[in-house]
Structure formats: structure tokens, C-alpha cells
Amino acid sequence: MGKLLAIDGLNIVRRVYEASPEPDSELKASIALRHAFSSFRHLLEAHAPTHVLAAFDFGGTTWRHALYPRYREHRAPMPSFLRDALPEFHASLKRVGVHAVMIPEVEADDVIGTGVLRWLAEGRGEAVVATTDKDLHALIADGALVWDHFKGEWHDDAWVRERFGVAPERLHDLLALMGDATDGVPGVSKVGMKTAARLLNSYGDLDAVMAGAGILKTPLGERLRAERDILSMSRRLVALKTDVRLGVTWKMLAYEPD
Known about the structure:
Layout: E1 2-8, H1 9-18, H2 26-47, E2 51-55, H3 63-67, H4 80-95, E3 100-101, H5 108-121, E4 125-130, E5 145-148, E6 153-155, H6 157-164, H7 171-178, H8 193-203, H9 206-212, H10 219-226, H11 228-238, H12 250-253
Parallel strand pairs: 1-2, 1-4, 2-3, 4-5
Antiparallel strand pairs: 5-6
Helix pairs in contact: 1-2, 2-4, 7-8, 7-11, 8-9
């Protein structure tokens, strides 16, 4: 059996870059990418995968912007020095047998979601996702495990339940209800994580919440009714697109240590 290691590339690169308090510069980008490359090598050595899917955002607008033009409007753009240095970073990965995958109009999350679900559906073996992105933790419901490279810890079903108060399969419903300020997903006003988790654990999935809590004559019920369309859009924004044409084969993603 094989092992797929799906790496959320920019999750690592941006975290390493932003950890330095130095002002943006070509030198800062060079140092950060050198450390990020070491992180990639460490992941490869620690997890010993047979296949590697290193996903990066292509850049520019995505299908989520088409759905909601204000998506990520408050997120700071990637520093130009870092953006300009990425092609050489991708080339460095290729030299050690790692193929960087970037697809126009979709995010790295969608690439990983598509690849991991396809791998698991084909029964090819275990799948590990290296990320700190909460959206990708939903893949745990399908049998994947998440590895937090920066904390050096595994995230599984129990971790998601402890951290978010819901099962992994309800994570996107939770994020739709509470919104995600980082990505500019609106959610339902005045609904935080605890309220969203309580609703889902009481009623089930998002449709059941709307059918149950959404008819209550309470301020919360009124907001759910009034913001039904916003909630529906939020659910689409946080969901992973899992039918992306990746343009690569498993043979292309096969990894052999140098």
C-alpha cells in the first residue's frame, strides 16, 4: 500500500516568512524559502511517502471570488519579493522529485481535497495532509490524517471534536454558520463557534438546523431566517471543490528519496 503526503505549500511558506519580524525584502524572502525548503525535506523524511502532492495557489481570482466578490478582500496580498521568488522555489522542489501543482481559478485547498479524496476512493493507502488550515481538517471524515508541521502533532477525529466541538464531517457547516474572518466568509451574524457547534450537535447538519432552529421565534431563529441566503453562500464558500482537473497522474506524483 502507498502513502500520499499532501502538502499545503503556501501554508508552510507564508508561516515561515511571516515568522520573521524583518521588513519585506529580497533577502527575507530568500531566507524564508530556504527554511521552507528544509521544512519540505523534513516532511518527506518524517513521513516517507510513496507519492507527494505539493499544492500551491495559482494566484489571482478564483471561483469563490466569482461567487462572492468580497471573498478575501481584507487579506494582505503576498509580498512581491516572496511572490517573485516562488518559481525558483518550485524548481528546487522539482529537483528533489516533488511536483508543485497549481491550477488556475482554484485554491490549493481544492487541489488537496480533490487529490486526497481520489487517492482514498481508489484504495491506494493512507493519506496525510500537512497543513494548519482548518478547512482541510474536514478530510479527516474521509479517512485522512492532518499533520501540523509547526507543532509536530497529529490531528484526528478526536482532535477536531475537541478543538471545534463538532465531528469532522460537520466542520464546513460550522464554518458556514460562524463565518471565517480570515477569508471574509460572512456566516450568520452573532453566531460564534460555541453557538454553531451547539446548533449542529442539537439538530444535525445545516439543513436540519434551518428546518429546526430556523423556525424558532427567537432572535437566533430570526437571524437564521433573515440570513438564509448568506448562510447558503457561506456554505458554498467554505466547501472544498473536489472535482478539480489536476493535470497530473499518480505516476507523476510518485516520490523516491534521493
